Amino acid sequence: MKIAVVTGAAGLVGTEAVRFFRERFDLVIGLDNGMRGALFGEGGDVSGNVAEMSFIPNYRHHDVDIRDYSLVAQVLATYGTDVELIVHTAGQPSHDWATERTLDDFWINAVGTLNMLEGARRHCPDATFVVTSTNKVYGDKPNTLPLVELDTRWDIHPDHPYHHSGIDESMELDNTDRTFFGVSKLSADLAAQEYGRHLGMKVGVFRCSNITGPRHAGVPLHGFLSHLVRTAVAGNEYTILGHGGKQVRDNIDARDLVRMFWHYHLEPRPGAVYHAGGGRERSTSILEAIARCEQLTGRPMAVRYEPHARFTDAKCWITDTRKFRRHYPGWEPRHGLDDTLASMHAHWSSFAAAPASAAPTSTEIEQERV
Ligand SMILES: NC(=O)c1ccc[n+]([C@@H]2O[C@H](COP(=O)([O-])OP(=O)(O)OC[C@H]3O[C@@H](n4cnc5c(N)ncnc54)[C@H](O)[C@@H]3O)[C@@H](O)[C@H]2O)c1
């Protein structure tokens, strides 16, 4: 039997991974303890995603906390060497939360990842293991690039090579402020590389920029585009934190990211590190994203501006994915930013109309092809 394991299965990336892999594996095992709800309150509740996935016949959910090695090992031992792929997305994704609850953050992001890697080493060492790392491992290093302030966005100076190609994997990791979240994610990232480079396991590390998609339970502390669209649909006030609202992120639709994982799985390179993002054409500043939301809803958004930017908040991040494309030329992102925003708008509008039952059933869910 061919089995895929997805941790954080109820989250944005996890839920898209389950949906994608259910057609390619006999069984998909999900691990998620619903912690996003506990982390972020009602707005972060992912139980709707769990309920939705219960309709998938070859999906099995385990309410497991990845901080507990014995539980993780028990699940992996149960399925053993039938496990061919592990996509590890469970995590605590917020800088602010990590600052307040530093130990919990480290246990979830760093120790939880180590638990998964070690469990895989003991029970399914030949499985491909995908780690969802983040560009936040570089801390505020992107703010040391030459930048220009334009009318609606910060940008990398046109004379700098990163302006055209985006930021590649050679960015320095040291000599930077990083946040505790960046520290816990970098710890996981480095441990994962060690399992690949030292032990030869098929571990791939994906340093992602902004990941987005209709199933993101966006909240003020995490999930910028999802939270913005959700706020626009609800007619609530959105708060911009610093940088004139001109801070730029490139965005990758979670469905395109999952297709990257699949390409990696077909030809894994142990210990490889890749940047994953949507590139310049899927980049937006907050001001530009607000304008797009206003077009979608047909009404102006109420916006409040707080001049103090988040600690280490990058003024401009645009991802260079050329390394991954060189290794896996069959991959390219399929979802444009307008397309992703439109599906997020449709998703949150349907929730606004009928909150309890609006989640589409698995039969309605779009099937993603390679
Ligand atoms: N969303 C982004 O913009 C982004 C960007 C870069 C990197 N990442 C990384 O990608 C991964 C997935 O991100 P996402 O946006 O899907 O996050 P998400 O919050 O939507 O999903 C994470 C899931 O992990 C679960 N979880 C948390 N702690 C757990 C624990 N102790 N045990 C079991 N399950 C637990 C949560 O309940 C949640 O469903 C994360 O590791 C995140 O750091 C995300």
From TrEMBL:
Residue stretches making up the NAD-dependent epimerase/dehydratase domain: 5-272
Lineage: superkingdom: Bacteria
InterPro entries: Epimerase_deHydtase, NAD(P)-bd_dom_sf
Family, as annotated: Belongs to the NAD(P)-dependent epimerase/dehydratase family.
PANTHER family xrefs: DTDP-D-GLUCOSE 4,6-DEHYDRATASE-RELATED
Name of this protein: NAD-dependent epimerase/dehydratase family protein
Organism in which the protein naturally occurs: Saccharothrix syringae
